[in-house]
């Protein structure tokens, strides 16, 4: 298989995949290509797309095509005509607590936020932004929640290390000198 053929195959697979395509999935679909050949083809694809309307990004443990960040305003304009399903402030606060403190239980979220989060938890579960991560080893064995792969995809994160640190967030909230 030529390098150009491998690039074309990977481009096609990444384009049609509903979720980010992992290296393991690529290797399973292309047993005739070595992992080094796949890496070389991916790097070439990233370079090919660097100055185009779409970019190839590593996100949520796999590869996905996305709009070039500099062109996001045009995509926003396109989507403004459709009503967007937005998260409430309570759901966003709850999601932030879960993202930074996961795995976490509902009582622990209540302790941090100071208000009930049951409705927000239901919304976040319905939108598949959070998932149960097991049960805490304590009385009552409450469910532990954490962010999902869908969360990483929706927020364009490769992994949770892409979240701003708590110190960076505190700087944003600090009054200007």
Please write out the topology.
Blueprint: H1 3-16, H2 23-29, H3 35-49, E1 54-59, E2 62-67, H4 72-79, H5 89-101, H6 106-113, H7 118-126, E3 130-135, E4 143-147, H8 149-154, H9 166-173
Antiparallel strand pairs: 1-2, 3-4
Number of strands: 4
The percentage of residues in β strands lies in: 5-15%
Helix content estimate: 40-55%
Order of strands, widest sheet: 1-2
- What CATH architecture label of the largest domain applies? Orthogonal Bundle
Low-pLDDT segments: none
What's the number of structural domains?
A: 2
CATH superfamily of the largest domain: Winged helix-like DNA-binding domain superfamily/Winged helix DNA-binding domain
| Order of secondary-structure elements | HHHEEHHHHEEHH
- Structural class comes to alpha+beta
Shape: globular
Distance between the termini: 61 Å
CATH class of the largest domain: Mainly Alpha
- Taking all residues together, what is the mean pLDDT? 88
Radius of gyration from the CA trace?
A: 20 Å
- Could you describe the largest sheet, including whether it forms a barrel? 2 strands, antiparallel
How large is the count of helical segments? 9
- The CATH topology annotation of the largest domain reads as Arc Repressor Mutant, subunit A
List keywords for this structure.
2 domains, Arc Repressor Mutant, subunit A, 13% strand, 9 helices, 177 residues, two-stranded antiparallel sheet
Plain-language structure description:
By secondary structure, the chain is of the alpha+beta class. The protein has two domains: 3-72, Winged helix-like DNA-binding domain superfamily/Winged helix DNA-binding domain (Arc Repressor Mutant, subunit A); 89-173, Winged helix-like DNA-binding domain superfamily/Winged helix DNA-binding domain (Arc Repressor Mutant, subunit A, Orthogonal Bundle), CATH 1.10.10.10. It has helices at residues 3-16, 23-29, 35-49, 72-79, 89-101, 106-113, 118-126, 149-154, 166-173; strands at 54-59, 62-67, 130-135, 143-147. Strands 1-2 form a two-stranded antiparallel ribbon. Strand 3 and strand 4 form a beta hairpin. Helix 5 packs across helix 7 (118-126). The relative contact order is 0.11. The model has no long low-confidence stretch (mean pLDDT 88).
